[in-house]
Amino acid sequence: MKTDYYTTLGVARDASADDIKKAYRKMALQFHPDRNAGDKGAEEKFKQVSEAYAVLSDPEKRKRFDQFGSERFQQQYSSDDIFKDFNLDDILSQFGMRGSGWGNFKTGRNPGSEGASAGGYASIFEDLFSGGRGKASARGAPPKAKGGDAELPLSVTFHEAMHGSERRLELSIDGEKHDLTVRIPAGIETGKHLRVKGEGHRGPGGKGDLHLVVTVEADPRFDRQGHDLHTVARVKPSLLLLGGSVEVETLGGRKNVKVAAGTTTDTKIRIRKQGAPVLGKAAEHGDLYLKLEVDVSGDLTAEQRVAAEALRDAGL
Q1: Among residues 84, 65, 63, 62, which one has the least CA distance to residue 74?
Q2: Radius of gyration for the alpha carbons in the chain, expressed in angstroms and rounded
Q3: Number of Cα atoms under 13 Å in the Cβ half of residue 294
Q4: pLDDT at residue 268 greater than cutoff 50
Q5: Considering 99, 129, 159, which residue would you say is the last residue of a domain?
Q6: Domains of the chain: total
Q7: 121 and 104 in contact (C-beta within 8 Å)?
Q8: Would residue 145 count as lying in a domain?
Q9: Burial class (CB within 10 angstroms; exposed 0-12, middle 13-18, buried 19+) of 226
Q10: What is the pLDDT of residue 173?
Q11: What pTM was estimated for this model as a whole?
């Protein structure tokens, strides 16, 4: 049967890796067995979207799928091929969902074994949909299910998000106190999750993980747009007319920025590599954009009024 993985996930063929991940997260949450106990239709849909994500999240498999098309791709790739080295547990735990307990998919027969392969596409889904109570396989009995993941909000300052820090937290999960020290990486953004292993809800097989959902507090000096920062400097009309420099606040302190003569108001000056750090790549930064606005606040002195009238009379 022909299967268009883009249609399965509801994304365009030129969708970014992030768009594909978001689409899978939404559908995995919708059809996950924990939310659809005994629903065979949801079970099948969960398998389909997981297969689609296993292909489209892998650059090489996605390239082959785009190149061959649905029918030829599925002739050349078995389920075991598709799910090879695909760690469903890690992916589901990132989304705050219970995994299967098996970790990576394993494919192929065990050396010297006879009959169907141990593990693979079927067994991991069987274990997931049986709530961890599936039949024993060549691996032995399925492991006891860990507790569910816990999710709590975490508000961080703009300074912490830009420079990174460590935060000591006192939390309560299921009535149990947790004293944690959490590293806040430079470049963290609102909506990102900080995962703390083994600090979630208790279960027969141990604790789940804790997901701290980050909100970055606003800063009056900067407007963050992705990796870029935007700020405003109010300058005198003479600076725009004659040129000079203006002192600007940056993440690394105050810096003097040159302004060319004849610059117009609302001009934006790009200051390279003075923006927000890139998450996971603290040495890389976006840019800082400086918007110049004319400062005409306050009453003019007699001398300033004479000068302004002279400029007006000169056509400026």
Answers
A1: 65
A2: 28
A3: 9
A4: yes
A5: 129
A6: 3
A7: no
A8: no
A9: exposed
A10: 87
A11: 0.52
Please give the single-letter amino acid code of residue 45. K
Cα→Cα distances 57→20, 24, 54, 97, Å? 7, 10, 6, 19
Residue 196 lies in a domain: yes
Q: How far is CA 45 from CA 24, 36, 53, 99, 241, in A?
A: 11, 11, 12, 16, 65
> Which residues fall within 8 angstroms of residue 63, CB to CB, at 6 or more apart?
none
CA distance 265 to 227: 25
What integer best gives the mean pLDDT of the chain? 81
Residue 62 lies in a domain: yes
Q: Do residue 200 and residue 228 come from a single domain?
A: no
Residue 65 CB partners (closer than 8 Å, separation 6+) = 5, 55, 56, 73
Question: Are the beta carbons of 287 and 273 closer than 8 angstroms?
Answer: yes
Of residues 2 and 71, more confidently modeled: 71
| Final residue in a domain of this structure, among 187, 216, 245 | 216
**Quick one: 41 and 105 in the same domain?**
yes
Q: Give the residue numbers spanning the domain of 288.
A: 223-313
**CA angle (78 as vertex; 69, 65 as ends), nearest 5:** 20
What 3-state class would DSSP assign to 194?
strand
Question: What pLDDT, in 10s, does the model give residues 90-141?
Answer: 666 665 555 443 333 333 333 333 333 334 444 445 555 554 444 444 455 5
What is the pLDDT at residue 103?
Answer: 36
Length of the chain: 316
Q: Tell me the β-bridge partners of 255.
A: 248
